[in-house]
Amino acid sequence: MDLFELLHKDDLSKEEIIFLLNLSTKEDISYLYTRADEVRQICCGDEVHLRGIIEISNYCDQDCFYCGLRESNFNLPRYRMTPEEVIATAKTITNLGIFTIVLQSGEDHVFDTDLIAYIIYSIKQETPAAITLSLGERGFDEYRTWKIAGADRYLLKHETANPKLYGVYHNKQKLSDRITHLKFLKTIGYQIGSGNMVGLPMQTVEDIADDILLCKQLDLDMAAFGPFIPSPNTPYQNKKSGTVELTLKTMAVARLVLQNVHIPATTALATLDVDGRIKGLNSGANIVMPDFTPSPYREQYQIYPDRRCMTDEPQNCRSCLQLQIESIGRRISTSRGDSLKLTPKEIINWSFK
Ligand code: 5AD
User: Which is nearest to 49 in space by CA: 219, 191, 246?
Assistant: First the structure.
């Protein structure tokens, strides 16, 4: 089978995915990106959805080897936003015409069931935005309470589909637990997001193929693939970053395999390459997730160093993204950008929830 046929084939096998991830000539790689862009156009259209991130706390009970927020990083000043600050930031985001709010934090149980429920309920009362939670592995009862309070989506990256590597990277956690949590979240009605990091220490291209296939098996609504960036004061501080090229290839192959899912051009990709967002949007992505965490907190949310757009003001950030997105003939969506897998009837029901 030649490359053209492969790029147009349904149901790529693991071997075929690996073959595509290993493409090495400029010409072949550019065919892959072009086909991914085509499939993105067919499945998602030309609208780019913005998700406004608020990093509500950088405390974390976990000790992941790659992450700057890990519990044993004592060099990082820790913060928690107040509920009032979070709600005010959510309003700023919706006033910019962005209708998804992502509440993100380390695994911080001081933000307990009730406090998070209060924040969700308040934002839902005061704005028309969808709410995505990205708070790590929490209790099943908490997920349920937050759904009732009004949360719409949950983002919980699987990071790697290789159970051995998962065990190495995450001191206290297991891959099978993470998958159970994702399945539970889906069962109780969340739109779910997951994904990996590309270029983690010891990771192989076979592992990345498994990541993409796991995303398919989980029937995700959103799948994120971002490069690993070594973070100071972590066990992996001296490891190499993932590459922009392998990240873009992963996103492109994921678009071919997963088709009608949301795929973001991540901030980590933009951190490694000034044009990372545009390159991502041209290789299968249809989402951008700008950070609206107010200063001085934003500087302290150091998952990895030198994050892109660290000092942008909200209004500037919005106009800068608009310029970039329109420069490639795309436009910013004015909708919430719900799952591409919902039927029209489900969308109508959803908007009344
Ligand atoms: N480089 C890139 N991404 C990282 N994350 C955590 N640490 C790093 C890093 N060093 C990502 C993970 C995690 C999310 C909070 O940030 O995917 O799920």
Answer: 191
Q: Residue 123 belongs to what H/E stretch? A: helix 113-126
CB atoms inside a 10 Å sphere around CB 66: 22
CATH code (residue 141): 3.20.20.70
Residue 114 has what DSSP assignment? H
Q: Closest Cα to atom 3, ligand 1: which residue?
A: 228
Write out the residue range of the structural domain in which residue 200 sits.
Answer: 50-236+291-351
Rounded Cα–Cα distance for residues 182 and 155 (Å): 9
Q: What angle do CA 322, 268, 25 make, to 5 degrees?
A: 95
pLDDT in tens, 55-83: 999 999 999 999 999 999 999 999 999 99
**Residues in contact with ligand 1 (CB, 6 Å cut-off):** 66-67, 157, 159, 197, 226, 228-229, 231, 268, 303-304
Q: Output the residue whose Cα is nearest ligand 1's atom 18.
A: 157
In-domain check, residue 11: no
Give pLDDT tens digits for 216-252: 999 999 999 999 999 999 999 999 999 999 999 999 9
190: three-class secondary structure by DSSP: coil
In a domain, 270, yes or no: no
Residue 77 lies in a domain: yes
Residue 210 lies in a domain: yes
pTM of this prediction? 0.96
Residue nearest to atom 6 of ligand 1 (CA): 67
Cα–ligand 1 centroid distance for 329 (angstroms): 30
User: CA-to-CA distance for 138 and 327, rounded, in angstroms?
Assistant: 40
212 and 188 in contact (C-beta within 8 Å)?
Answer: no
Domain count, the chain: 1
CA–CA dist 99, 76 (Å, integer)? 31
